[in-house]
Amino acid sequence: MEALQNRIYLAAMLVLLLISAACATNPVTGEQQLAMMSEADEVALGKQAYPQAIQQYQGPPPQDPELQRYVSKVGDKLARVSHRPHLPWEFIVVNSDEINAFALPGGKVAITRGLLTRFDSEDELAYVLGHEIGHATARHHVSQHARSSLMSLGVLGVGIALGGSGWGGVAQQAAGTVGGLTLLSYSRDQERQADDLGSEYMIKAGYNPKAQLEVMQLFENLRTSEPSFVETLLATHPMDSERIANAKARLAKLPASITSRPLKTKAFEQAMATQRKRAPAYREAVQGDKVLQAKRYSVAARHYAKASKLYGGDGIFDTKRAVALWQGGQRNQALKAAGRGAYLSPGLLLTQNVKAQLNAKAKHWLPAAEGFEGMTVIVPQSAELQLYAGYCYEQAGKNQQAAQRYRRAMRLDPYGKYGQTASQRLRELPGY
User: I need a surface site. Which of 39, 47, 117, 380 has the fewest CB within 10 A?
Assistant: First the structure.
């Protein structure tokens, strides 16, 4: 009995030591906070996940650097007055119709095109960016990350437990930890704190805090009118009447000199001019998405074709059209559309993946290899993609290129299934 009590005592002490070692001072409140990584680790994790998160949201809107500069300028203005101005802040617009914004650890913030185009002023943008900056300055990701680690590994273990991103299949390695980072659901207390911080930062930066109420009411309206567009946002950023009531209470305490500030609309509309012009094309693509889900493939293909005609600079339209055409049995047209999508948007995993997959299914091995090759440029450390590129080159009779990719897969994954499969195929390759 005494030995058992001693073991229980030692285990309890170990738990206390682990938890105390995992605590850090919150940069915002000055209080102790559960956190299992240093600031350097936090920054490194965000830096690693950031490019992959951008891929999940279809990269930046093409051919609109002015918008990116504008959003970065607004974000930097807010970050400078935050509790952690020294972080390596980065701000980006991503090319998704989804209504969403997210922050990664260490100062990486993204807002979707779909959300940005619903705003009428820079002040609304400033509130959303300020809110996400608040999540980062208060280290909410780190705290949530720590809790999920303790829960998944038990009280006697520490570590990182993040889920996959949902790319699935061929691009799973490309996704890494991104899904777990961007889809962590904040608690209501964390949302309340981020609301407070977003309001504080936008006021310090010279914006009208009334815009926060406009943003919250926008989300409430969209919850009813277009629930599919805000599904992810509301899953990760819980919205309720209390948050709106708190926003009103915050505004009521502010002097008129702040709440009467003129909204910044002119510069905002100038920055949004390109996206406003492209809006009809993206509306067509959204209609295509809806009918594609209903398996009305020919109708979906026509919507995507019209979107491409309205704005021919985004390969996503042709890539989606390729999927619709393939599902509708129009294989040759699908392959042409997939090739065009990959050509127009060469830096996206989605466009390259569709080109690779469809051509492989059609046994058009060289174009398939080119698609996988395009993916390896984006994710060079993926043994899986190197293996698939090698296999397609082998089937195309390009043994030298196949051998090169197999060797790369072996170096990247010497003891795993992709490296082992690559090793076996290399041994069976004539001349190697």
Answer: 380
Look up residue 252 and give its two tokens: 């009521």
Give the whole-angstrom CA distance, residue 85 versus residue 396.
53
Q: Determine the residue type at 280.
A: P
Residue 97 and residue 113: Cα distance in Å, rounded? 6
Reading the block at residue 176, the tokens are 């890494």
Q: How far is the C-alpha of 195 from the C-alpha of 128, rounded, in Å?
A: 9
| Structure token pair of residue 158 | 């520490």
| Domain range summary for the chain, segments of one domain joined by + | 2-266, 274-362, 380-432
**The pLDDT of residue 56:** 86
Q: Is the separation of the CB atoms in 367 and 335 below 8 Å?
A: yes
180 phi and psi angles, rounded to 5 deg: -60, -35
pLDDT at 172: 35
Which residues make Cβ contacts (< 8 Å) with residue 66, sequence separation at least 6?
271, 274
Q: With 0.85 as the threshold, say if the pTM is over it.
A: no
User: Is residue 355 within 8 Å of residue 370, measured between CB atoms?
Assistant: yes
**Sole residue written with tokens 């309205």:** 310
274-362 carries CATH number 1.25.40.10: yes
Q: Within 10 A of 342 (CB to CB), how many other CB atoms are there?
A: 27
Contact call for residues 94 and 114 (beta carbons, < 8 A): no
Residue that is written with structure tokens 């006021």 in the block:
203
- 245 sits in which H/E element: helix 241-252
In contact, 103 and 136? CB cutoff 8 Å? yes
Predicted confidence band of residue 32 (pLDDT cuts 50, 70, 90): low
Amino acid, res. 266: K
Residue % of the chain over a pLDDT of 90? 63
Identity of residue 81: V
Q: Cα dihedral angle (347, 351, 353, 357), rounded to 10 degrees?
A: -150
